[in-house]
Each structure stands twice: as structure tokens, then as C-alpha cells.
Write a structure and sequence with these properties.
The complex is a heterodimer of chains A (215) and B (928). Chain A is α/β, with parallel strands linked by helices and 215 residues long. Chain A has helices at residues 17-26, 36-41, 68-83, 93-100, 202-214; strands at residues 5-10, 30-35, 51-54, 87-91, 108-111, 119-128, 143-150, 154-157, 163-169, 178-182, 188-191. Chain A has one domain (5-214): Rossmann fold. Chain A has five helices and eleven strands. In chain A, helix 3 (68-83) crosses helix 4. Chain B is of the alpha+beta class and 928 residues long. Among the domains of chain B are: 11-132, no CATH class; 153-190, no CATH class. The chains are: A alpha/beta (215), B alpha+beta (928). The interface between A and B is large, with 48 and 47 residues.
């Protein structure tokens, strides 16, 4: 069986690329690292994959706004990905990049947690909501447990036009209710959490299996 | 707003002010200002908005409030803002070229009053006119010419004055030896670089001269060699200790203090504490991947009860605590290294100088675990952050006492940590190894190039050209370039045929890397400054300014120092007597214990540290139903798809060291090991780290230190658990008011243990399993309160500690190991300073179950001497008593379904205990 190709983005400051590649492997994909500078210089092609994943971390030190600099640099290239209909996922800092890119419209943003503090918690529960998201296909109603670790993780703004894919069940690390969102066509998925940090959880792996299947 | 401070020529500073569109409730407006130094006019608002504003949250502010008091702070002139490079990249994406950038933050009104601005690294502006005076954001500095000194013409007082004036921390004997070198080489003068070189090489930080003088380094090292544990890969020779793991892997660990900088500038000091020890793992063998951090900080007394003169003379412990948490989160999280264990303690004797200890564990392969050796012809490549005037004199300052003198102005010895840069090495070093480029690696610790490249070159020879070193400051003297340290720089010996490949790999990971020298066969450390010189070739001759040309072997001629070991005073025995505890007293005493700062709920700090990154966590720094109880043991599965477990524990109780430093050292070691054993780790699979902190102005300190080392070394031999890494800080005294007041830290040692288990599922952790099961206490019990939390709560302490002797401990620990692996134990936790009552409370809080106790309440409050609280099936309690009689098992009570605590039929108000336990930390640290 040919394993589908998954590109995991590397920009300075990302720090979850290894576990992201591992969960893609567990889900049956064939991951490789792609470098932001190589994409911009044309040495690596952004669309040369079936799945494009943006991992967590602190890209460019989060020195302006989390995810902002990757979004600034990749804005044009990213359009190629979207036009090619490639399945995309962003976790944590990856989620912030996708929001900064305006994938979910210009009316939402990621704000600081209500506590004003970074919150790391391994056992956050996420309830899958009905949506057309290809990542959670067939998982509606399930509760998936995976870690959260962020300081700017609360979706704010006008969320009425955005599909909610997961909500927090019980404790919310940032005070918000929404835990994951997706694009209108269901192919671009973003969560502030880290399903890739719960490799032993079959539901977390299933998210990626679904994504690869849809790719 | 375009305030555009005028610059020379066409270069200007443009201030881009960003504010929130909607301010948080009760929060006055705060403005983030991007100060951009660039040529030409201010870019359009549209472009600036795109770069610096999220359209939902932010807006460009045309005019900040006027005629109101404000405070605006940013890094001072000598410091490069760590955000500068990112801002440059962001601006470049929109076609804007920036020369320099700094972020400042402006607060108004009451909010400004609560902002901590540390003059060591920051500057506070309160008027617009002051801001307009900023001429440049680039660090300024005048490159001073090399200075020369004729040591042979100096008398003793002049030699000492020279050492003092230059912060060399060299003694008269040292200076005379340097004069001797001058004479031997028939030099008319020696350079400032020469002096700084020996100041670093002979510092206590690099040479451990005090330990050498006491003969204790050899004692500990010999003990480790004598044990000859087959798991040991390396000990005391590399940046970290190496321990054989499974599947051809090696785990390495290292802990290091950063006490003086963390007292002076806690954010920067703690930031670089962690950065420094992480860097040690990068430089272990041919590179290890850091997989876990640990954090322990002991601050002074929050209310200065014991040392009231400290008020106003030191940073408040509350500030240090807040800044510590901010720093550990600020560095550890971006690095992508999970937090394993974290704790903050408070004791009056750390009010003059904090105890700031950080640790990192790394993993590599057996092949890569061996230290590389550079060969003549290899190219010396400097990679990472640029060299600046921060991080200067780290080695020599750490060898001196903390006084008002330790303030070096613009060239601060506190480095400006930048995890963003250090993190780039995480993948790059592995790629360099895979590409076959590496001959050797070293970290850029205290003493900069002197130690980083010097240590790699001492077996063959080395030529460095300082003119090739990329600088972030306009003008640094040769000696400053030579000794500036950083956790964001690494030193590499690259095979000559692989230099191009290596430079390409560095570029791929956005790391600036520059060849700055060549390894030679001269046995000499040669340092030049020559801007004209192009490439490095074998046999090249010295050119330009010759800053240093010394035989490496000369640094071994460091004069021995003499330390007076004063016998430990024999005073009358002082005992903190145990009160006769009645069942009715339990609630009140328990409430006091669990609310003690050292053992209270510190999740408010711990949850700020990422503990799950890398996806290898099994039990992190917290556990339990509410994820708020501190773990004694961290457990990781560092290799994907394998159940191989890596365990870590750490022990230090200041109250025990206050009572009896030597017995406390044994107790700490026993506790760190018992924590592993009760979980099921075997003795032979455990290795240890020692981190000493000694008050050098305490006349008895060296006596205690010697006895402490002898005790733990002897015990390690008897148990077969070797110390494989350690570090000593022998400058634990702080003086105030011209030495009128001296505060000595306690004669301390933190003992850490690292263990392994082939299958994590075999581990027995502290989470009560089932109502109806019996809780039993095993191990000898203390009869006094000396060294206990209850004694601390009551403001008393004794001057001796009960505990196991080395011989007793050696007999006791294998027994408890046998119990842990008997299959009877369902959950287990060691008992230490808070006594059994603390563990029982934590058990209830973590599990959600309750406990019905039927026990003499006196047994619940003393510190336990290497014992544990274990859970067994009701049906097996008698078997345990019979089979393990020598463990002195006592039934405490039974686990019950409902979350409550009952002792001898009397309920304890669990919510009262919870309230105290939950609120202490937030109240003391965050005023909440």
C-alpha cells in the first residue's frame, strides 16, 4: 500500500514536529519535514503532499503575535495549498498560524487565556461536535482526551461564520468553549490542543487517519 | 503615531504603537511599541498594520494618552532585544529593511506602579522627552585597544588590585604565578586577554579549586569508579553524566545552579540557568536531545522575620518567585522540553542569595555518547547567537561573594536568554551528526571561547581569530569577545572536508555559523585579532594582534589553595520536641502542615510549564483527579512505541539542613532513592547527581562539606548507586552594609536520582486504587520534630537530625525495594518532611477517595526516615506484616469511597485543609 505523503512544516521556533510526524506515521501516512525557507525559495514545493500539517511551538519566538510571522511569510504560498484542495491541519501554534492567515475569515483571532497565564494540562477533554470536518468524520459525540499547552488559545471575535468542530468538556485551559474549528469545506482543521501528544489514544490517531483518508 | 527620533543621516527610529481594540475589564490600557531603526521614511500605516496588528484584536495607535504619568520600559542600550531578528524577518516579508528593533511596553496610572523594571537589563522611561533622547537602538560600545601589563614590575598590593579591578577573582598566589609565566616566556608585558584567560581557567567555576583543596572531588569520583556499575557510560568527565538506557540508547543528566545572577536579576538569571543546563546536554558526547527539565528554587523568607535588615536591600522573595516562574515558562516552553518536576521552597537563609537549581535530561545513542576529540586541521565553528557584552565574567563572578560590588554596568554578567535561538540546535545537531560532520561539540558556558573551544583544543592545540567572531555590539575588546558566554552559542570541531556541508545544515536551521579558528598540533592556545586573514589552513602563522599564545599545560599549574577546615562545633543537643498529639489536635496541625509554603499546592506555577511536549510523558510534575498534586517521581517513555521508562526524583529539605547538614545529606539521598525504589525501580538501575551549595564565609562550611561528601560517597558505594554528575557552588554567602551583615545559605546539597525500568506498566505510583484497601506506613519513624515541616510551622528546630546511618541505610533500602516489587503494593509514595499526614491528604485530594484512620496520631507528624506509605489489599495486610516485619509496618487505616478524612472516629474538616493547601502559594507569590 502506498502511504500518503504528509508535509510537516518547519519554521524556526516550532517544537512539535517530531510527535506530529510520529502520529502521521501511526495513522499510516508518510511524513517529511518541509522548511519554510525552502518553500519560499522554491526548493520544496508546498503542494507536493497529500496532507499539510503545521505543528505547535513558538514560531519566530511568538515575538509579534503568535503565528503572525509564519502567516506573513507564507500568505501567498498558502493560497496554492488551498487551491489544490490539500487537507490541512494546525495544532496550537499551527492553529494560530491558520487563524492569522485568515483561513477562517477575518473576524476571529486568538486571545490570551482568561487566567493571563500559560496553561499546560495533559488531560483536557474535547467533545466532537457535528460538522463536515473530514478530520472528525464519524467521531461526532466522542470525547477525545489530549493535552493543551498554550497562553494565547481563546478563540475571540465573531465565531458565527466558523464551524465548531470540538468544544471543551469540563475544564477549559483558556476560558473559552470552542476547542477546534474547521473551514467551510471541512478540509482545514485547527485546534489549540495537541492530539499528537497522546499517541496511545486511538481517537487521536483516528483524526489523522481520517485526514489521510480524505486527502 | 510617528515620533521618529532624529538620527544621523537618513536613519531614524520610528515608533509603531499597538494597542488593544478592546481592553480587558478593570485593566487600564497597555501599549506595545515596536521601535524600528531604519533608513528612510516611516512605512505606511497599512503595511505596519499588516505586520504588527491582528485586525480583530489590535489597532495602530496614533496618539497615546498625554499629560498622564506613565512608565515605558525596554532593554537598555547594551542589550539586543531577543525579538529583534524576528521583527526584522517580519518586516522583510513586507519589503521593509530594519537596522535594529526593540519592543517597549507602556503602562499608565496604577498599572505602572506594579511593573518590575530591573535596571540590570532594562531602562524605564517616564517622560516623552527622555524617549526622544534615544539616539540608536544598536548597542553602542567603543572597541578598546588591548591593554598590556608588566606583572613583574608590580608589588603584591598592585597585583591584588589588578585582580580586583578586573573582577578576575585571582589570589595573590595566582597573580604571582602569572608573573612567573611572564618571566619564563621573557615577555616584557602580558595582555588583558592573557589575564582574563587565566581568570577564567582558574576560576572556581571552571577548576573547582575549593573541592580540589579539600580532596572531596577525588573522593566522590573514586567512589563512582569503585562501584563500576555496568550502566555507567560516563561520569564527571563530560557536560553531563551518561547512563545506559535500553535499545542502545543512553540517557544523560545534569543539574546546575545559577544563584548569583538569579538573585541579582531573577528573570535573566533563571532564564539562563535553564538555557545553560539545556546547552550542556546539546554538548554531551556528540550531542544529546534534551527530553526533560527540572526546576527547584529556594527563595528567602517572605516576611523577613529572621533577617529584617534585608527589607529594601534585596529583591523581595515575592518578586524573585514571580520572575522565576515567568523565566522558567519563558525559556522551557519555547525550547520544547517537558517539565518533569518543579518546586519552590522558602527559607530565611536563602534571603541573601537564592538557591536556583535547574536540570535537564537528554537522550542519545551509545555511539554518540562518547566525547569527541578534535584533531589538527579540524575547523573551529562558532554557531548560534552573536557575541555581545552580556555574559561577561560569569565564571569569575560565580567564584566571588555576592556584594554590592557585583554590578558591571553595561556589560552585565547576566546573559540575555533567547530560547528561540537555542531551540534551533534541537534538530541541527542531530543533522550534523548524521551527515558525519562532527568531531567534537562543546557548550558555550562560563568563560566563553576560553572554555568552549579551549577544552576541545587542549589535547592538540588551537588557533582562534577573534576578528571572525560575529558581534552584536558595535565594539568589543578582544578580551570581551574571548570570554563572553551564552546558552545560545555552541562550539563545534568540524572535519575539514565537511565544513561546507556543516554550514549548509546550519543555514537550513536558520543558525548563523562562522569558522573562527583551526585546531593545530602546537599544544598551544593561540588567539589573534586579524581582520585581513581569510581562511584557516594547517601550519598558518600568527598574524595581526597576538592576544594570547600560551601552552595549554600552563593552566594546569594553577596554585593550590588552602582552606581552613574548622571542626563542626559541638554544642548541646537541642530538640524540637514532639507535642503529645491527641486525636482532637490532628485537624489543626494537619491544616498548618499542608498550608506550609514548601508543600502546598503549587500548580499555579507548575501548570505554566509545558509538561507534555515531545509526547513522552507518563507521569509529569502533577497528578491526580484535579491535576494539582505534586509528583515525587516523574516518569517518561522517551522512545516512541516502547514501554521503556525513565524515572526522576529529587530531594532537598532546607529545614533538615538547618538542623543537621550532614545527616540531612544522607536523608536527602535516601529519600531520592526510596522514591524510585517504592515505585519499583531497582537499585542498580539508579544513578545520582549532587548539587552542593556552600556558604564560603561560614567558618564551619568546609567541615560540613567534607563530611557531607564522605557520607553520600560512602553510601553510594554500599548501595551500588553511583554519582555520575554534580556541581558545586561554593559562594553561598551574601554580605550587606559593608560586611556588617552576612547571610550564609545553609550547607546544602540537593540529591537527584535518575532510574530506568524496562516496562513503565510495572511501576507503582501514588494514586490510591480502590476503596477498602489498607494504607500502611513502613520504615523507622523519627522521635523528634527536628527538620520537619511541623517544626518549621511552629518556628522551632533542633540541631540534630534523626536518620539512618550509612550502614543502616545500606541495609534498609534493598528491603524496601523487595517490598515494592513483591506484587502486593497497589500504590506507594515516600514519606519525607511533611510526615505521613501530608501524604494522606495528597492521597485523598488526588484520588477523590477518603481515608478512615485508626492510628496513634503522633505517628503522622514526624518526618519519616526513608519510609513510605503503601496501599495493599485488605487480605494481604497481614501477609505484608509477617513477611516484611523488619520494615516495621503499621496499618494507618482503610481507603473509603467518600472524599473525607476520619481519624479514630473523628472527622477532619477536609475542606479546611484543602483551603489552606490551595491558597498559600497564590497568596504569597501572587497576592491573591
Amino acid at each position: 500500500m502506498i502511504r500518503k505523503k504528509a508535509s510537516v512544516l518547519y519554521a524556526p521556533g516550532f517544537n512539535c514536529e517530531e510527535e506530529t510526524m510520529e502520529i502521521i506515521r501511526l495513522a499510516g501516512g508518510n511524513p517529511r519535514l518541509v522548511f519554510i525557507d525552502y518553500i519560499l525559495s522554491g526548493r520544496q514545493k508546498i503542494t507536493d503532499c497529500d496532507l499539510f500539517s503545521i505543528p505547535g511551538g513558538f514560531s519566530y519566538g511568538d515575538h509579534i503575535d503568535p503565528g503572525a510571522i509564519v502567516a506573513l511569510r507564507l500568505k501567498e504560498k498558502f493560497q496554492e495549498l488551498i487551491e489544490a484542495g490539500i487537507v490541512i491541519g494546525g495544532n496550537c501554534n499551527g492553529n494560530q498560524v491558520l487563524v492569522q492567515l485568515g483561513i477562517f475569515g477575518e473576524k476571529i483571532a486568538m486571545d490570551e487565556n482568561d487566567s493571563g497565564r500559560f496553561c499546560s494540562h495533559p488531560y483536557i477533554q474535547h467533545r466532537v461536535q457535528p460538522s463536515n470536518c473530514v478530520w472528525t468524520n464519524g467521531m461526532e459525540g466522542e470525547i477525545i482526551t489530549y493535552p493543551q499547552a498554550h497562553r494565547f488559545g481563546k478563540y475571540v471575535g465573531d465565531l458565527s461564520g466558523v464551524q465548531t468542530v470540538m468544544t471543551y468538556e469540563g475544564f477549559s485551559p483558556n476560558g473559552g468553549k470552542v476547542a477546534a474549528i474547521c473551514s467551510d469545506n471541512g478540509r482545514i482543521f485547527a485546534t489549540m490542543g495537541h492530539p499528537e501528544r497522546n499517541l496511545g489514544n486511538s481517537l487521536c490517531v483516528k483524526l489523522y487517519e481520517n485526514a489521510l483518508k480524505a486527502a | 503615531m510617528s515620533t521618529g527620533t532624529k538620527q544621523s543621516g537618513n536613519v531614524r527610529i520610528h515608533r509603531v504603537v499597538v494597542g488593544l481594540k478592546k481592553h480587558r475589564k478593570n485593566n487600564p490600557p497597555v501599549y506595545k511599541i515596536y521601535n524600528l531603526e531604519m533608513e528612510g521614511p516611516r512605512p505606511s500605516d497599512r503595511l505596519l498594520q499588516e505586520i504588527f496588528c491582528d485586525p480583530v484584536k489590535h489597532q495602530l495607535v496614533k496618539q497615546m494618552p498625554q499629560q498622564r504619568q506613565f512608565l515605558e520600559h525596554m532593554y537598555h542600550g547594551g542589550v539586543v532585544d531577543p525579538a529583534q531578528e524576528s521583527i526584522k524577518i517580519a518586516c522583510q516579508a513586507k519589503g521593509i529593511k530594519i537596522i535594529a528593533a526593540k519592543i517597549s511596553t507602556r503602562y499608565y496610572g496604577k498599572a505602572a506602579a506594579n511593573i518590575f523594571v530591573n535596571p540590570q537589563v532594562e531602562v524605564a522611561y517616564r517622560t516623552e522627552s527622555d524617549i526622544k533622547k534615544i539616539e540608536t537602538l544598536l548597542p553602542r560600545g567603543k572597541r578598546l585597544e588591548m591593554q598590556f601589563f608588566n606583572l613583574l614590575a608590580m608589588d603584591d598590593s598592585q597585583l591584588l588590585k589588578l585582580s580586583k579591578d578586573r573582577d578576575l577573582s585571582l589570589s595573590l598566589a595566582d597573580m604571582k604565578m602569572l608573573a612567573n609565566f611572564q618571566a619564563e616566556q621573557r615577555l616584557s608585558v602580558v595582555s588583558d586577554t592573557f589575564l582574563e584567560y587565566y581568570g577564567c581557567r582558574w576560576s572556581d567555576h571552571c577548576k573547582h579549586r575549593k573541592w580540589a583543596a579539600l580532596g572531596i572531588y577525588k573522593y566522590l569520583y573514586d567512589a563512582t569508579m569503585l562501584i563500576n556499575n555496568p550502566n555507567m557510560v560516563s561520569a564527571f568527565k563530560d557536560n553531563a553524566g551518561g547512563w545506559r538506557f535500553y535499545g542502545g540508547k543512553v540517557v544523560a543528566f545534569k543539574k546546575e545552579t545559577h544563584n548569583s545572577p538569579s538573585q541579582k536579576e531573577p528573570f535573566g538569571g533563571q532564564l539562563t540557568k535553564l538555557g545553560g543546563v539545556i546547552r550542556d546536554l546539546f554538548g554531551f558526547g556528540l550531542g544529546a536531545k534534551p527530553i526533560g527539565n527540572t526546576e527547584l528554587t529556594v527563595v528567602g523568607e517572605f516576611d523577613h522575620k529572621k533577617f529584617p535588615f534585608l527589607e529594601g536591600n534585596v529583591l523581595e522573595p515575592q518578586t524573585i518567585a514571580q520572575e522565576t516562574i515567568r523565566a522558567i515558562a519563558g525559556y522551557g516552553n519555547p525550547m520544547g522540553i517537558p517539565m518533569l518536576l518543579s518546586r519552590m521552597l522558602s527559607h530565611p537563609n536563602f534571603g541573601g542569595k537564592v538557591f536556583a537549581l535547574g536540570g535537564t535530561i537528554g537522550i542519545t545513542t551509545l555511539k554518540r555518547a562518547l566525547k569527541g576529540k578534535s584533531l589538527p586541521g579540524d575547523i573551529a565553528i562558532l554557531a548560534g547567537g552573536r557575541t555581545g557584552n552580556d555574559g561577561i565574567h560569569g565564571a569569575t563572578i560565580s567564584s566571588g561573594e555576592m556584594t554590592e560590588k557585583v554590578d558591571t554596568g553595561d556589560s552585565c554578567h547576566v546573559q540575555i536568554g533567547n530560547p528561540y535561538t537555542e531551540q534551533l540546535f534541537m534538530r541541527a545537531i542531530a543533522a550534523l551528526y548524521r551527515a558525519g560532520c562532527l568531531r567534537a561539540i562543546n557548550d558555550f558556558g562560563a568563560a566563553g571561547i576560553v572554555s568552549a573551544f579551549g577544552e576541545m583544543g587542549e589535547d592538540c592545540g588551537l588557533l582562534i581569530n577573534l576578528a571572525k567572531v560575529p558581534l552584536k555590539c558595535a565594539g568589543l575588546s578582544n578580551w570581551q569577545i574571548f570570554i563572553s558566554e551564552s546558552q545560545e552559542r555552541m562550539a563545534f570541531a568540524i572535519k575539514p572536508e565537511k565544513v561546507k556541508t556543516a554550514l549548509a545544515i546550519f543555514r537550513r536551521f536558520s543558525i548563523e555559523a562562522t569558522p573562527i579558528g583551526i585546531f593545530t598540533n602546537t599544544q598551544r592556545f593561540q588567539v589573534i585579532y586579524d581582520q585581513e586573514s581569510e581562511d584557516f589552513e594547517r601550519g598558518m602563522s600568527l598574524s595581526g594582534e597576538v592576544c594570547l599564545d600560551e601552552l595549554f599545560s600552563n593552566s594546569d599549574r594553577c596554585p593550590a589553595i588552602k582552606l581552613e577546615v574548622v571542626d563542626i562545633p559541638k554544642t548541646g543537643i537541642k530538640t524540637a520536641h514532639h507535642p503529645d498529639v491527641d486525636t482532637d489536635d490532628v485537624e489543626e496541625l494537619a491544616a498548618k502542615i499542608v498550608a506550609h509554603f514548601d508543600v502546598c499546592n503549587q500548580a499555579a506555577a507548575t501548570m505554566q510549564y509545558d509538561s507534555t511536549v515531545q509526547s513522552i510523558h507518563y507521569q509529569g510534575p502533577l497528578y491526580g483527579r484535579n491535576y494539582n498534586v505534586a509528583s515525587s517521581l516523574s516518569v517518561q517513555r522517551p522512545v516512541y512505541n516502547k514501554q521503556w521508562g525513565l524515572t526522576h526524583s529529587e530531594s532537598f529539605s532546607p529545614w533538615q539542613f538547618e538542623a543537621d547538614p550532614v545527616q540531612a545529606a544522607i536523608n536527602a539521598m535516601v529519600h531520592a532513592i526510596v522514591t524510585q525504589l517504592v515505585a519499583g525501580v531497582k537499585l542498580r538501575d539508579i544513578c545520582l547527581a549532587d548539587n552542593f551549595y556552600t556558604p564560603h564565609l561560614d567558618p564551619h562550611a568546609w567541615g560540613y562539606l567534607k563530611k557531607q561528601v564522605y557520607a553520600i560517597a560512602d553510601l553510594s558505594v554500599k548501595l551500588g548507586t553511583p554519582f555520575i554528575t554534580g556541581k558545586d557552588s561554593s559562594s553561598g554567602s551574601a554580605t550587606f552594609d559593608n560586611a556588617k551583615h552576612v547571610i550564609n545559605v545553609l550547607c546544602s546539597v540537593v540529591i537527584s536520582a535518575m532510574g530506568k525500568i524496562p516496562d513503565v506498566r510495572r511501576l507503582v505510583l501514588h494514586l490510591w486504587q480502590e476503596p477498602g484497601n489498607v494504607l500502611m506506613m513502613v520504615g523507622p519513624r523519627a522521635k523528634t520534630l527536628n527538620g520537619s515541616i511541623l517544626a518549621s510551622v511552629q518556628g522551632v528546630n533542633g540541631n540534630f537530625l534523626e536518620g539512618l546511618s550509612v550502614e543502616e541505610a545500606a541495609e534498609w533500602l534493598p528491603r524496601i525495594s523487595k517490598l515494592a516489587r513483591s506484587g502486593m503494593v497497589k500504590s506507594a509514595v515516600p514519606i519525607n518532611e511533611g510526615g505521613a499526614i501530608l501524604r494522606l491528604f495528597e492521597g485523598v485530594e488526588a484520588s477523590g477517595f477518603g481515608i478512615d484512620m485508626d492510628v496513634d496520631p503522633n505517628l503522622l507528624f514526624t518526618a519519616n526516615l526513608g519510609g513510605a506509605l503503601v496501599e495493599v489489599n485488605y487480605s494481604e495486610a497481614d501477609t505484608l506484616k509477617r513477611k516484611f516485619r523488619d520494615l516495621q509496618p503499621i496499618v494507618i487505616g482503610r481507603i473509603k469511597e467518600n472524599q473525607e478524612m476520619v481519624i479514630n472516629g473523628k472527622p477532619i474538616d477536609f475542606h479546611l485543609l484543602q483551603n489552606g493547601w490551595n491558597t498559600t502559594f497564590e497568596r504569597k507569590v501572587y497576592n491573591k
